[in-house]
Design brief:
alpha+beta; 2 domains; three-stranded antiparallel β-sheet; two-stranded antiparallel ribbon; 5 strands; elongated; binds zinc ion
């Protein structure tokens, strides 16, 4: 039996499977990966949600499953860049032109369609998030990240609009 490097509990006891990650120095860090919903799922907290290793040491009571993860957002951004590639000089120059207003807005069709649909959207789904491509409303989501994830999934690494449904 080993002690979980993330929460300090014994891994692999009743209802507690375990797994591990390799630390930067090459040593193994055991992590609990339980099927008991009352225990933290340290393996997924660290590998999927990027909670920094050891975040739950000394934290009592322990959270259950993956609730309340303190995600390391810089790690998420690094993953995203690894997947999509670093922006090129051309991309960065284009972004500068958009910011200083000399480049026509790349999402003008989406913004126009959003503006004309807004009165109805406010009635149906105020506070939620829309995903739009061209003049088409693709879907409505509870959260911004869900809408962005769906946009990348459906369209790939191209511009699409994700916007909150709220009165201006
Ligand atoms: Zn643990």
């Amino acid at each position: 039996m080993s002690e979980c490097a993330h929460c300090g509990q014994v891994c692999g006891d009743y209802a507690g499977g375990w797994s591990s990650v390799t630390r930067p120095d090459g040593s193994m860090a055991p992590l609990c990966h339980p099927n008991d919903p009352e225990r933290p799922d340290c393996y997924r907290r660290v590998t999927v949600y990027h909670e920094p290793l050891g975040t739950l040491l000394g934290v009592r009571p322990l959270p259950a499953g993956v609730t309340g993860c303190k995600a390391d957002l810089s790690a998420l951004v690094k993953d995203l860049i690894a997947e999509l590639g670093e922006p090129s000089d051309e991309d960065n120059e284009w972004a500068d032109r958009v910011l200083d207003g000399t480049e026509p807005h790349v999402l003008q069709a989406e913004l126009d369609a959003f503006t004309s649909a807004l009165p109805n959207l406010l009635i149906l789904a105020e506070g939620k998030w829309v995903l739009m491509k061209g003049d088409r409303l693709i879907n409505v989501f509870d959260g911004e990240m869900e809408a962005i994830a769906e946009g990348y999934k459906v369209f790939g690494n191209v511009p699409f609009l994700v916007k909150k449904i709220e009165a201006k």
